Sequence to fold (358 residues):
Amino acid sequence: MEMSKREIAAKVLGSPLTNRLWRLGGGRSGELRILAYHRVLDDPPLSFPFDEDLISADTETFRRQMEFARRNFDVISFGDLLQCEREDRRWPARALIVTFDDGYRDNYTNAFPVLSHLGLSATIFLASGHIGEEKLFWWDRVAYLIKHTRMQEVSLPEVSAQPFLMTDPRERRACTESLLAWLKRVGEETRRGFVKNLGQRLGVEIPATLARGMHLSWDEVRQMADGGIEFASHTVTHPILAQTDEAQLRHEICESKETIEQRTGRQVLAFAFPAGRRERFNKRSVEIVAECGYQYAVAYDEGVVKENNYDRYTLPRIHVERDQSLGLFRANLMFPRLMVGRTHAAAKAVLAAQQAYG
Ligand SMILES: [Zn+2]
Fold:
């Protein structure tokens, strides 16, 4: 959906007036919303050395988003959801789960204080092999290398017949996006080999301490677990599961669960598919998630979860992106059916709202 149309719709649907009317409408039960964050960071995106697409919000914006969430929704965890199911109770009227993917350290330094202050729970999906390690995620490695090469033109024939131009940040960003899209499509071996050799091909040395303090430590994970944060699994190394063979699938899905359970002393209930749009994981990976004893899994497709009809191993979420206005965030949460994932609904909603408000 075009951002402009969404933003126009958000002006009306995300306004304080609409919010008041929505609240008067009373709780509509039978729906669960799951918010998907990655990083909460105050770094300026332009000079950011890694993949800036993973910055979901700055700390102040995150605080305002969570205040809105607390005022308007029942923020719960996957544990609460399971409890409802086991006791055969309905879900809370306005159920919302706040999730973070990957396990970046800013979840502890920037997001956790906000969540604690507001008394909100959240679920963090950890790529367990990166926790407490100084290992860059492959997309951050690619973004860093493309941003730091001195080359003005780069030939990567396996990705594109045309060389990539690198004369300004916009071209470099376009190159990074092409590479990341290609890397999500190719086999696991190809991806690993390409990422490993890319520094040499671009003439960039990765500083040994570059990933220091980038990911959560197990100590920080335990502190947050004691403070009401729920931890869940996002594999060990964050591969694209559709490109991963059976033996590694099992390792990635089952071992991360065991590691997190050992480190936190708490049961892991949920799993998040890496880069989890439908084409990025396959039926086999969903089966293994069930076999490994997870209760729920979230995808990265957008939507709401309906109590009377949902697939517990491919729950949709609502994305939070850095360039969204607060109005769009509010509109996405209050009216996900209108705002999320459907091409013309937002434009229609604007017209309807304009008519309703005169
Ligand atoms: Zn991820």
